[in-house]
Amino acid sequence: MLTWLGANYITMIDGVALGVLLFTIALGLSLVFGVMDVLNLAHGALYLIGAYVAVQVLGGGSASLLAFAGAGVLALLIGGLAGAGLSVMTRPVARRGHLDQALLTLGVALVVADLLSAAFGNDVKSIDPPTAFAGSTSLLGDAYPTYRLVVIAVGLLLAIGAYVLIERTRVGALVQASVADAPMVRALGVDTGRLVTGVFAAGGGLAALGGVLGAPILSAYPGLDTRVLILGLVVVVIGGLGSVTGALVGALLIGQVETLGVSLLPTYASFLVFGTMALVLLVRPSGLLATGRSA
Prior knowledge:
The chain has 295 residues and is mainly alpha-helical. 75% of the residues lie in helices and 3% in strands. The chain has two domains: 32-222, no CATH class; 240-290, no CATH class. Helix 8 packs parallel to helix 10 (269-283). The mean pLDDT is 86.
């Protein structure tokens, strides 16, 4: 066991880095689906928007930490506005079936993807990490990219911040109550419309910020939105709706399955991801840490 860990611990750290990036996607998906019961298939496009914001702002060379932070703030704002716009667009179909919601948001995702392809082309756009984190750090005698460690730290800080907001504040209590029983929250006089818009905006901003953070690792290219969306949906199913902790646990689990699968069993990597989801559903149909939702 120790020998296996010694041979694969670098890959496992890569899995943690991928996991925290998936968390930025999955949390917004989980809360939007939990609060508004809307299946938002445009969420991956918001991640891709963030990645291309990094491409546009930072270009192809190394950038300062300040420039990188500026790209993150810009992506956060654009993603938030886009999320709020999606909230308005999906209101007419919010009470209809998930098929209508999926078709609407999928159409938005396809339009956004085509616009991004027209603007940036179909080539893979690579982004260098900020110059302050461009080097390597020694881990147990092996060199490991410093930037990936920074991504892990930032992702965990975001998870802690989201947990405090959802679990320890009045706004978070309203969000959780809406996940559990939205009609009752409305009956108590709470403006769930503004709450839903805020959740959409926060989820969109977090996804776009994840795109900036992930650009030096995953780059930016057409189709990346689909990849991260599928993994994000798997994370939501595993973690459970409306749970910050569930989104984080599911994201870290799928990050490990994805990276170890590609490294050790590349032929079966995709099957391992969906097999993990199927196994969790057999044991916990509502997800590992679902908060619960009434009809």
